[in-house]
Amino acid sequence: MLFHPIYIQAETLLRQGKPEEAINRLQAHLAEYPEDSQAKFLLAWAYYMSNKLPEARNMAEVLFAEDPEQPQLVNLIAEIDLAEDKYDDAAKKAQFLVERDPNQAEAYILMARIKFLQRYYDAALQHVEKALELDSENKEALNLRVRISDTIGNYDKARDSIQELLYLDPENPTTLANLGLQQLNEGKVTDALETFSQALSIQPTNMLARHGMMEGLRSRFWIYRLFYQYQRFISRLSAKNSWIFIIGTYLAARAIGGMAEVSEGKLQLILNIIVIIIALTFFLSWVINPLLNLVLSQNKYGKLLLDEREKKMANLTGVSLLLAILSFIGFAFSGFFRLLVSGFLFVGLMIPAGTHLNPSKEEKQKKLRNFGLAILASGLLAIAFDGGILLIITFVGLLGYQFYFNRMMINDFSRKFDE
């Protein structure tokens, strides 16, 4: 079969973001023409776009076995690898495409996306620049250069690329999302929200614009704007430097606390304030996102942007905070010491409540959830039986959770450099 109108219909539906409808039509077509390889290829893409990854992979690999040199198939399987976090497998396929046709900009863009997701930002930028040498007006490459340049702090290059993109296509939703993020970086929260709204009005499913809108809504709170910049700073550090920063800050706080103990007057007050600020900074870095998400879940826009994972962590953090407040109030009126301990316990539990679903892999989520439940059980037993040892175990458990979570997140999200 050389050509069939179903191809155009399916491609149009996929461009319109209607993969389920494309799947239904392609399946009906293949029931009549089961050997139509082009329809099978389009069906594999439709499965991929509807997040039916096992079905997409099965069909794509069957076609690949028949024609292993077909670049479209290699590209599709690489995309499936990326969706399944199999970055090394995807990189091998991207390298094959680069070597097969070194003059194809799309192959370098695919490699750049992979390197960006692996957090090899410098290597990703090199591949983007190569793609732009081949196709200087490629919108995907320019948008990717914006994201990479912005991530590593090269704001001038990001700004120049955005201006090029706005000239080429002023209504491109990804370009508008990148413009909104740039405005957010500059502290122009109102302008950023308007830009994200414009992007979402053009393409409501644009993930970068949805992410930017959430950041913009949170950034209406001045304290989050500070943490937004703090998070951006941390994301540029390597794993080693992240640990140096965290451990160094902790040791600095201990040292300042020690100095405060032997100081007097205003100096003691100033040093204690510094220690409190450092401690609050660390604590808020754990819980500020879920707490603001709890606020945004009551916002008509925010509740549409939050996913179920974010809502669950926000609700659990809110419950933990409420129990802490009630415990402190109870202690204030009754003087019952166990209520004071309960208050501090639930303040500490806000950390696992607000972070345990942050890792993308379910296995890691389960480990963090079990860790948090063990801390809760230990703390409740300590309160019920007035156990000093159990309180120590609970405190050590909270410290251990923070260390374990930090290690997990640093391994997953720290910047990497090619050796």
Core attributes:
82% helix, 419 residues, Serine Threonine Protein Phosphatase 5, Tetratricopeptide repeat, mainly alpha, elongated
Structure description:
The chain folds into three domains: 5-169, Tetratricopeptide repeat domain (Serine Threonine Protein Phosphatase 5, Tetratricopeptide repeat, Alpha Horseshoe), CATH 1.25.40; 171-218, no CATH class; 237-413, no CATH class. The protein is built from 21 helices and no strands. The model has no long low-confidence stretch (mean pLDDT 87). 82% of the residues lie in helices and 0% in strands. It has helices spanning 5-15, 19-32, 37-49, 53-66, 71-83, 87-100, 105-117, 121-134, 139-151, 155-168, 173-185, 189-202, 207-218, 222-235, 239-262, 265-296, 302-305, 308-334, 337-355, 362-385, 388-413. The chain starts with a helix and ends in a 6-residue tail after the last helix.
H/E element sequence: HHHHHHHHHHHHHHHHHHHHH
Tell me the major beta sheet: none
**Overall strand count:** 0
Structural class, please?
A: mainly alpha
Helix count from the secondary structure assignment: 21
Radius of gyration: 26 Å
Residue share in β-strands: under 5%
Q: Give average pLDDT, whole number.
A: 87
**Estimated helix fraction:** over 70%
Number of spatially distinct domains: 3
Low-confidence stretches: none
**Shape summary:** elongated
The span between the termini is 50 Å
